[in-house]
Specification:
The chain is of the alpha+beta class. The chain is built from five helices and four strands. The chain has a domain of about 130 residues: H-NOX domain (Alpha-Beta Complex), CATH 3.90.1520.10. Strands 1-2-4-3 form a four-stranded antiparallel beta sheet. Helix 1 crosses helix 2 and helix 2 crosses helix 5. Pfam families: HNOB (PF07700).
Amino acid sequence: MAKFELGTESEIAHYYNDDETLRLVNAMANVIGGCWCTVLRIPIEEVWEAYGGFLIQFTMETGWDELLRAMAPDLEGFLDSLDSLHYFIDHVVYKTKLRGPSFRCDVQADGTLLLHYYSKRSGLYPIVKGVVREVARRIYDTEVVMKVQERKQEHLDAFVTEHVVFVITQIENSNSVQKAISSKTDSQIDLTQ
């Protein structure tokens, strides 16, 4: 359905350009939707979100789990470290000149996190939801809910950049001990910004 040469759609070390990737994701949405009814199609956003969760699962199962677990003591710190991780992977591991997305986290007085996501590639923000939920679950033993608060296009560095603001809320679970999503206390949160 994605019009790939038979057998090339699953090459792990292959760089897929955005057109190829979008063809593959659209085909997946049609195939998965077709499992229940021939007319159904699942939203592309759900495919991207599932991919984000799978990406963390795959990354941890292929030897990167210790690095991911060592990045930060809490989810906020992990998210604030993603720019460095992307740089390391793109420039050191794969020796490319790619520039990944950028992330910035703000702790709110109510304990939620605002995650600012910036990317030159529009429409991929649902991947972030899958990644963050899976990281929270696998590394920080907690469940979170993510909602898009704002999505806009900005002009940064002579490029149009998608800026998505997520609200991340920790789901309280009385049956288990959870790690907080931020180690900052109320007195450490700067409310003057």
